[in-house]
């Protein structure tokens, strides 16, 4: 198994990266690719404010561009899903304060035992804005 979790959007030659990763696979091996979906509803609604638009990202992929990328590498898509992440509530509240007026609540969390407890909880989150592709070779 080869894992490329939030990597491919950082490289200037994603075809070469996937070909190199594919070469590492044993017969029957799986390459797991996770990357943001530039065509997602969140990306379209938030535009330039979408959280995945970062200076370190040199490439972005939609469903179609990912399919074309995989076609050029000799790999095949075995399965596709949307990524689910696990975040502490405190982290989400901090990140949401960029979009919503939550600063007052975040400051209060330090003084409130109930909020402090809530902010330490970890919750699953699937915003349907990242892909998980399971890739394999056509001969394995």
Characterize the structure shown.
The protein is α+β, with helices and mostly antiparallel strands and 140 residues long. The chain has a domain at 2-84 and 127-137: 3-Layer(aba) Sandwich (Rossmann fold), CATH 3.40.50. Helices cover 34% and strands 24% of the residues. It is built from six helices and six strands, in the order βαβααββαααββ. It has helices spanning 14-23, 41-46, 63-71, 89-96, 103-109, 113-120; strands at residues 2-5, 31-36, 75-82, 85-88, 122-125, 130-137. The strands form two sheets. A four-stranded mixed β-sheet has the order 1-2-6-3. A two-stranded antiparallel ribbon has the order 4-5. Helix 1 links the parallel strand 1 and strand 2 (31-36). The radius of gyration is 18 Å and the shape is elongated.
Set out the fold topology.
Layout lengths: L1 E4 L8 H10 L7 E6 L4 H6 L16 H9 L3 E8 L2 E4 H8 L6 H7 L3 H8 L1 E4 L4 E8 L3
Parallel strand pairs: 1-2
Antiparallel strand pairs: 2-6, 3-6, 4-5
What labels describe this entry?
140 residues; alpha+beta; Rossmann fold; four-stranded mixed sheet; two-stranded antiparallel sheet; 34% helix; elongated
